[in-house]
């Protein structure tokens, strides 16, 4: 089945004036989809490999850009503990009410702009950015990647959607069975159509950052890119 052309439409919840309660409801749908269909698993797979490089007893920091409800930081911290590591997780969202919603699942949270991360160069060991990049195009997407690279001491992990008509059909059908809000369904389908192919993601990362990255397809029509921050 051929790959659809990448779309540029606006998602309803990309609007900063979107209703707060609706945003939180949609984030719950997103967290469920990521848990069931592989978004969280894809990022954790890459983190698992990175954590192996650290000796037992090491304390590390992780910043999750666009953390949603903080499900990835929570799972990453648990995985680190099983490996004898301490992971201080920071979840960042643009809106203060979303940052507060993630607080129970992160060591700390803050509201901030991904275009200007409020951290010094090389100050965070690991940066994760899951299901966020496709919300941006052109220079904004490049700036997001540059900021992640600037702040990362060790590595950046980006997880996103792999564009496919089959993925669109699967999300549309499953969204009814899972009880997704209509806004979540609309934005989810558009998110898939704004996703990436392997060559597209590699080119975007390498042109924006000047870093060589490793790109993998993951289960559930997910795609990951990993590169060294410094």
Name of the CATH first level:
Alpha Beta
CATH superfamily: Vaccinia Virus protein VP39
- First and last CA, distance: 39 Å
Shape: globular
Architecture (CATH level 2) name: 3-Layer(aba) Sandwich
Share of residues in helices: 40-55%
Helix/sheet category: alpha/beta
Give the spatial strand order of the biggest sheet.
Answer: 3-2-1-4-5-7-6
What's the number of extended β-strand segments?
7
Compute the gyration radius: what is it? 16 Å
Fill in the keyword field for this structure.
7-stranded mixed sheet, alpha/beta, 21% strand, 230 residues, Rossmann fold, globular, 8 helices
How does this structure look, described?
44% of the residues lie in helices and 21% in strands. The protein is an alpha/beta fold and 230 residues long. The chain has one domain: Rossmann fold. The protein is globular, with a radius of gyration of 16 Å. The termini are far apart. The model has no long low-confidence stretch (mean pLDDT 92).
């Amino acid at each position: 089945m051929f790959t659809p052309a990448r779309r540029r439409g606006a998602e309803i919840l990309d609007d900063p004036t979107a209703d707060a309660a609706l945003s939180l409801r949609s984030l719950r749908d997103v967290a469920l989809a990521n848990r069931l269909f592989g978004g969280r698993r894809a990022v954790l797979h890459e983190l698992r490999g990175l954590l192996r490089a650290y000796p037992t007893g090491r304390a590390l920091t992780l910043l999750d850009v666009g953390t949603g409800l903080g499900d990835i930081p929570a799972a990453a911290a648990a995985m680190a503990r099983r490996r004898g590591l301490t992971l201080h997780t920071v979840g960042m969202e643009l809106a203060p009410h979303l940052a507060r919603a993630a607080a129970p699942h992160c060591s700390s949270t803050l509201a901030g702009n991904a275009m200007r991360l409020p951290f010094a160069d090389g100050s965070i060991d690991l940066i994760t950015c899951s299901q966020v990049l496709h919300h941006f195009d052109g220079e904004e997407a490049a700036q997001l990647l540059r900021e992640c690279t600037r702040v990362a001491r060790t590595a950046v992990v980006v997880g996103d959607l792999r564009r496919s008509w089959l993925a669109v059909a699967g999300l549309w059908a499953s969204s009814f069975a899972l009880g997704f809000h209509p806004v979540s369904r609309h934005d989810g389908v558009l998110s898939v159509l704004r996703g990436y192919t392997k060559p597209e993601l590699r080119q975007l990362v390498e042109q924006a950052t000047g870093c060589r990255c490793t790109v993998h397809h993951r289960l559930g029509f997910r795609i990951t890119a990993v590169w060294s921050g410094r």
